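> run fold DUF3060 domain-containing protein
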Amino acid sequence: MKPEDDPEARIRQLEQPLADYGAVELGTSQPPTNDYPTSALPPPVYGPPHQPPYPAQSPYSAPPFGVSFPPGPTKSGAPFGLIFGLIGVVVVVIVAGIGALVWTLSSATEEIAGRPGISIATGDDPRGGSVTIGPSRGAPTQLPDGEPPKVAVAPAGGHYSVSGVDENETIECNGSNISVSGVDNTVTLLGHCLSVTVSGVENQVTIDSVDQIGASGFDNQVIYHSGDPEVNATSRNTVTRG
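> ok
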């Protein structure tokens, strides 16, 4: 067999240039001499060192250690509890004021309705309303000058009573029994009375003549002009002759 037909020899022949080139690069052997001049191979060009890619970070990851951020804005103002408390106090004050106003108006209406007055019908009003005019407290009723006071005549041998508040009456006894009660009344008894009984508070009674006087209550004053009556009075009342 010819040498060029040997496959192993052919393989060694093809591998020889590669082995020589590797030895030249490693500097372990001298390159084979050739009849034609050769130039040194340029040094290999190396790229920049390979850097591993940065790991992907989550947008919500924690900041690195040692990094500080400025504090967020703080809310200023009154707390909600104080605001609600003030609102509750204002509501309570308003409700109390309305209640006091309603109570005052109702009391004034009842007081006006309870006073005696004069009702005047208004014909021009199609609804037939009326206007009530009450008496004035500050202006006492005065009799015209020269007009004598009216005198009431008690029934003979009967009974006659005087009561009320701040009344002023003149009575002809006519031999009857007179009873005076109420508050701050002024009573004048003319003629002769069988008996006079006074009760109540601060009544003033003047008697011409009487057989028997009885006084009870508080601060009543009885004055008789003649006779020697039998007197029965408590400590808070006075019976005198005048």
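Residues 55 and 207 are 127 Å apart (CA to CA).
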